[in-house]
Structures are given as C-alpha cells and as structure tokens.
Amino acid sequence: MKIAVMAGTPIDSKLGESLLNSYGYNDIVLVPISNNPVEQTTFQSLNDSEREKIIVEIIEQLKEKNCEVIFVYCNSLSSVVDFDRLATEHNIKIVTPMQMYRNLGLEYKYLAVMAANSHGLTGVENNLYVSNPSLRVLGLSMLELVKAIEEENRPEEIVKDFNFEVLFNYLEQTKVEAVVLGCTHFPYIKKELEKITNLPIIDVGVFMINSMEK
C-alpha cells in the first residue's frame, strides 16, 4: 500500500514516516506543506478557499502517483482543512488526528492538551467535545516547543529547558486524568515526559495507524 504522509513541515513528515515504518509500511511519499513551523502557521491562517485550493491540488497529484491513503500527520493542519469532505469528494482515504479525538473524549472527564498553536488546540478541543460536551480541557499552545524539536535538540535537553517537571507537577495537582500530545512533533519527547510524571500521555499516532488498517 502506497501512503502519502502529509504534514506541516519536513520534520513532522519524517516523524510520520518513522511511525509508519515501525508498523511495516515502507512505500511512502512525503508531502510537507511548508518549510518550517512559522511558515506552516501562516499557511493555516490563509482564508479557507485559498488554503483548500492548495490542498486539493496536492491530493490530485498524489492520486496520480497512485497513493492509496493520505496520512495527515499534523494536528493543526487537520484542524483547518475539512479532510473528511475532501476524502469523499476526491475518492481517497484520508486519515487525520482529528478523527481520533472524536472518540477519545468519551474515555475521560478532564484532559490537558499540548498543541503547537491556537489552530491545533481549537481543533483538538472541538473534536473532543463532539463526543463529550461536558469534558473539561486545559489547553496549552507551544510553538516554541515545536521549534526546539525542529532544531533536533535532544529530548532530555528539551524537557529540562522547558521545565516540564514543574508543568507536569502542576497538571497532577489540578487532577488532570491524562495529557494529550496534540501535535505530531511532541511524541519526540514522550519517553522523557513519562520519566517525570505518572499521568498517562496520549499519542494519537497509534490510533491513526489502527484507523488506517480498518
């Protein structure tokens, strides 16, 4: 199966490729929409029709390359484009993080969400509320964290530099049940975060793989 990994930047495109490789998928086309996180945030701020026109052109190009699935490995990108509708209109399977959050909300009463920017955070929250309107969400927008990961700083250094131990201590005190990594860059530091907290840390990438295989 030929899979296109569409993501915000070259780095999260490669992170998506690595995730797919770990599940045995190797016929992959990388499709970064932008060159860096700031450029991607600017792209997401375009008006809807302009943004969708660009995405539709890419979808048609991917179909010409015989891609069977588009794996949208970017939370904020999938929050500002109606990929569900485009999948139907262009007759191609598209898997996005936002699809996963619609079910995740049923399992919890209070979640913390770490997102790259306000676009991603709003998208995650809105989709969590689809399944559970009474869910409580503590949201964090962390574009500087994305930049640190893009610079390929070591995970342990990032966790120290951002003083995450203090943040997660605060989250534990607020009785948050779990922390959602609402940006596809953030699994890069997941193992280091698990060393400083007992809170479950949720990476929807695994759920995306399961959805793709159905």
UniProtKB/TrEMBL annotation:
Source taxon at top rank: Bacteria
Transmembrane stretches, start-end: none
SUPFAM superfamilies the UniProt entry points to: Aspartate/glutamate racemase
GO MF terms, alphabetically ordered: amino-acid racemase activity
The protein's name: Glutamate racemase
Organism annotation: Gemella sanguinis
Biological classification of the source: Bacteria, Bacillati, Bacillota, Bacilli, Bacillales
